[in-house]
Amino acid sequence: MSKVVSARLQDGTFQRLSRVARILDKTPSDTVATLVEESLRAIEFALIEFRSSPLGRQAFMQGSSLAVWEVIEISQQYQMNEEKVAEHFERSPEWVKAAFNYAEAYPKEIDFAIQDSQAVTLTDLKRRLPNLEVFSVD
Predict the structure, then answer these.
(1) What is the pLDDT of residues 31-61, one digit of tens each?
(2) What is the pTM assigned to this prediction?
(3) How many helices and strands (H and E) does the chain possess?
(4) What is the number of alpha carbons within 13 Å of residue 85 lying toward its C-beta?
């Protein structure tokens, strides 16, 4: 169930909102709902922020270029061991725990992002990165 909330926006703010809505291919109302949800999550979860990426809006770890799902994907290789994951990323255990906390609260979001990442093929990458070169390391 959803609730309707109205808000007065200054003209400049509405213009900026409309521009972001076009970029996200959403209505201004849907964009406000998305941005409010993201802001609330960023307040509720330490070290989490939202950014636009080629894959859309995503939860990222503050102070890094890593999306939360990327931290979790690597963490799975370490059986979700906080200490080992922290060592891998050269970050504090608290940083890793912040990713775990977010993933625990939004498991479908994280699982879908990991599945989408694993579904990308070499052909897909070459389409996105025309100069991509593949090489092997012994």
Answers:
(1) 999 999 999 999 999 999 999 987 889 999 9
(2) 0.87
(3) 7, 2
(4) 22
